[in-house]
Amino acid sequence: MSAPASTGVPILRLGDVLVTGLLNELDDKTAVAFADELTERISADRARGVLIDISRLEIIDSYVARMLMELTTMSRLLGARVIVAGMQPPVAITLVELGLQLTGVETALNAEQGMAALGWHRSPQAPEGVSRDAHR
Amino acid sequence: MTPIGELRTAVADVTDAGPEAADGEEAASVYPVESEEDLLTVRHAVRAATIRAGFGIVDQTRVVTAASELARNAYIHGGGGTLTVEHPVRADKKGLRLTVRDKGPGIADLDTALTDGYTTGAGLGHGLGGARRLMDEFEVDTAEGRGTTVVATRWASR
Question: From the CA of A90, how many Å to the nearest CA of chain B?
Fold first, then answer.
């Protein structure tokens, strides 16, 4: 797979879901490169869901907000559902005061709830004798 | 993160033009806003300043976000400029004052620029109006061809 200039942000694939997370800060160039890389991966991996954990992100200004909204729209056009999970409360307060509602961006309280919304449920321990890979 | 000394003369001009020019208790720190990297440096500097001023986490986030918006405006629309951080004190309240000055074309219609959704560039159009809502005091000095100076102050626990 030919990846565009990497941002160094890991993007993991779990079944048909891509899981990724943003670090505590994001400059403008990295934000754009991340959106490019993620849409490439959605297409290459035929992902149907994307979870973006933002629990470490310390601020979201209008530029990053726009990136998240555009990324959500682009992903939807590709056929994937994006969930942005784990926004810090001060970030949410500031976004609202800034006048940004992240229109169209689906959110979840944390990564676990985001994954559940994408169809991943925490299962109890695998029954004895059943391989975890059995149904792959 | 080290303030640049050569720009201190510019600071004096800015504070003279700003409101309540006399109440800054510590020396102002000036940071260049000339590149993408400077935008990150400015955020770090403002975050550290809000912590020094004793701001809580929500006020820290408000001020750093406002600084990010204003600095990006100066970089993108103003062709670069400076951000000055001061620690004013008023009636035992600690505050943080950001002065963002650029040498760009100025804002022709300030009322429109402060309206949400208005943009002439790559942002969402919430930059200036949004930054105003995140701060307690907000003044814009601009004229066509003269550049733009924004002075924005937040006081601890309003």
Answer: 5
